[in-house]
């Protein structure tokens, strides 16, 4: 049974969230009717939603137990898929000798740097294109054309340009990050309620005030959707880049393990990628909950 | 630059401001005898002149209601007075501070109610000013709420507070009560009269509701054929009752002017 908390947290995942336009221009009377008017959420609802959160852990845990059973009864060979317990103890070993932590540090640094560059470019260009016709004409056609290029097809070119050091990996991540952020932020800016823009004029907000109070906050929900997409793209780009060539990082650890037939290390590396992805996604959800409280009107 | 923005029409942002500042001479709107003056105002959409040489003067502190059939150009006239329409020809003289309350409250959903009230207002104590204005419309408790949690009537009252906190010389109301239920509307009528008596802005109220116009206004105008085609003064002292004989007579005149047979004769 979907509970309120589950549906709110998954709502922003849809490519088009409640756009700010309809949300803001919808008669407040109807909104007032469906929004819980409470100051504090009733304890019962909180309890129910935390129980629902727990319920979501059951099936993954069952799967893990089944996997463990299949491995210990010999149904799954260690060569194909090592038992969760094996992966766990490998993790402890590799943390102990620093291999895993070093690899994670290197990979996270690549992802973070690439993300920072890509986010700056994506958001910056979207603001430029979103705020003026001139900017749109200058930026948008180029972005739409570049978007059609398969990013991973650029790897050979990047290697030719940047060599095989950190730069091509960072560049690939940045590219993956820039486009979802650009597209969503641009759409968010253009989707801002025209009535509010008109209001800004009657309030004499001026152009800077219009951008600051109306346009940018209005674009935020859509931009955050872009953020989540771009983080997923960042990890994917990193994984691909690290597969192609690397002498450090998680990808290197995995490739190395493959040569020595250490399936457990390969599985461990994949699990770490997954956890990193989940962590950043959870971080964005947290930001969404903080920044978009006004949408549901729930108390802070 | 501005045309890239959503909902911002072709003319630059400054046009409204310039138009107001450029014509607001010493003897002009707000300082002279009138709150606003429109002379020979024409607005064309394509070949069609929706406003065709309209003349209108609103005295200082006067409450004027504007009636007219749907599509007759009431909102067009109001938008011109609000400085939202750069495509008009003719004379337009409005005071430096014009405030607008639209049919939808247009509260900025990501700003708390109090921040909406003082948005764009340059004051030392914004929260204090907002709370004072909200208290005047009976929303003292709701300043910290998010706009989407307000009821329709509450949101419309917040919108009124936002208009009045600017101490406007001219208050423009475009069917601000039409989306409200009948009971809330009655409360809002009293509130508007109360606020008007206290602040005394010139008011232009666009409405479809003849009774509303008769209950509130000093003068009721009918817009037709792009001009003010009819004008009725309402001398009945307030508070008015809708069954007052003067109002009954005026109602019949106005309904006839609007092309509707009065009740009971159809
Ligand atoms: N931006 C525009 N472009 C083209 N035509 C327009 C535009 N704005 C208004 N019009 C036309 O001008 C006419 C008058 O519109 P306006 O909104 O002023 O009517 P109104 O008297 O306020 O009607 P209502 O009572 O239904 O609100 C309408 O026929 C409308 O279609
Ligand atoms: Mg209208």
From TrEMBL, chain A:
The chain crosses the membrane at residues 111-134, 146-164, 170-189, 265-287. Pfam families: BPD_transp_1 (PF00528). It is found in: Cell membrane. InterPro entries: MetI-like (IPR000515), MetI-like_sf (IPR035906). It is a multi-pass membrane protein. Keywords: Cell membrane, Membrane, Transmembrane, Transmembrane helix, Transport. Belongs to the binding-protein-dependent transport system permease family. PANTHER family: ALIPHATIC SULFONATES TRANSPORT PERMEASE PROTEIN SSUC-RELATED, ALKANE SULFONATE ABC TRANSPORTER-RELATED, MEMBRANE SUBUNIT. This is ABC transporter permease. It comes from Actinomadura fibrosa.
From TrEMBL, chain B:
Keywords: ATP-binding, Cell membrane, Membrane, Nucleotide-binding, Translocase, Transport. Pfam families: ABC_tran (PF00005). This is ABC transporter ATP-binding protein. Residues 36-250 form the ABC transporter domain. The keyword GTP-binding does not apply. InterPro entries: AAA+_ATPase, ABC_transporter-like_ATP-bd, ABC_transporter-like_CS, ABC_transporter_ATP-bind, P-loop_NTPase. It comes from Actinomadura fibrosa. Residues 1-26 are annotated as: Disordered. GO terms for molecular function: ATP binding.
């Amino acid at each position: 049974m979907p509970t309120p908390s589950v549906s709110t947290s998954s709502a922003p995942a849809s490519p088009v969230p409640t756009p700010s336009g309809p949300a803001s221009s919808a008669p407040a009377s109807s909104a007032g009717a469906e929004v819980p008017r409470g100051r504090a959420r009733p304890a019962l609802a909180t309890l129910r939603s935390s129980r629902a959160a727990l319920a979501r852990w059951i099936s993954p845990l069952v799967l893990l137990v089944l996997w463990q059973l299949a491995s210990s009864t010999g149904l799954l060979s260690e060569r194909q898929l090592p038992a969760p317990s094996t992966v766990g103890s490998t993790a402890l070993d590799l943390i102990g000798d620093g291999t895993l932590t070093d690899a994670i540090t290197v990979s996270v640094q690549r992802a973070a740097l690439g993300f920072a560059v890509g986010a700056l470019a994506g958001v910056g260009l979207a603001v430029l294109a979103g705020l003026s016709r001139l900017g749109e004409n200058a930026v948008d056609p180029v972005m739409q054309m570049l978007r059609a290029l398969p990013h991973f097809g650029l790897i050979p070119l990047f290697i030719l340009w940047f060599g095989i050091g950190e730069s091509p990996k960072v560049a690939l991540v940045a590219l993956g990050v820039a486009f979802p952020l650009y597209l969503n932020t641009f759409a968010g800016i253009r989707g801002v309620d025209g009535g509010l823009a008109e209001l800004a004029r009657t309030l004499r907000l001026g152009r800077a005030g219009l951008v600051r109070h109306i346009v940018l906050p209005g674009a935020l929900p859509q931009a955050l959707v872009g953020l989540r997409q771009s983080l997923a793209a960042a990890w994917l780009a990193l994984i691909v880049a690290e597969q192609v060539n690397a002498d450090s990082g998680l990808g290197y650890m995995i490739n190395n393990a493959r040569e020595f037939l250490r399936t457990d290390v390969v599985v461990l590396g994949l699990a770490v990628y997954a956890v990193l992805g989940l962590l950043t996604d959870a971080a964005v959800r947290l930001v969404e909950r903080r920044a978009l409280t006004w949408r549901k009107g729930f108390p802070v | 630059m501005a045309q890239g923005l959503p909902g911002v029409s072709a003319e630059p942002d400054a046009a409204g401001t310039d138009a107001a500042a450029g014509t607001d001479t010493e003897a002009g709107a707000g300082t002279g005898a009138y709150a606003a003056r429109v002379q020979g105002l024409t607005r064309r959409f394509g070949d069609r002149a929706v406003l065709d040489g309209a003349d209108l003067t609103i005295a200082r502190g006067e409450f004027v209601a504007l009636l007219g059939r749907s599509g007759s150009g009431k909102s067009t006239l109001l938008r011109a007075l609000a400085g939202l329409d750069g495509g008009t020809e003719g004379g337009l003289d409005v005071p430096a501070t014009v405030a607008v309350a639209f049919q939808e409250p247009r509260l900025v959903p990501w700003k708390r109610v109090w921040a909406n009230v003082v948005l764009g207002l340059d004051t030392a104590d914004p929260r204090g000013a907002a709370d004072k204005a909200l208290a005047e419309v009976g929303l003292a408790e709701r300043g910290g709420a998010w706009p989407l949690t307000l009821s329709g009537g509450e949101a419309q009252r917040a919108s009124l507070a936002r208009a009045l906190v600017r101490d406007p010389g001219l208050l423009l109301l475009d069917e601000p009560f039409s989306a409200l239920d009948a009971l809330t509307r009655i409360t809002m009528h009293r509130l508007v009269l109360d606020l008007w008596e206290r602040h005394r802005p010139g008011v232009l109220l666009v409405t479809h509701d003849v009774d509303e116009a008769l209950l509130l206004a000093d003068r009721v105008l009918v817009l037709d054929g792009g001009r003010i085609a009819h004008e009725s003064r309402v001398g009945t002292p307030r508070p008015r009752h809708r069954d007052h004989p003067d109002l009954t007579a005026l109602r019949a005149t106005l309904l006839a002017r609007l092309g509707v047979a009065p009740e009971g004769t159809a």
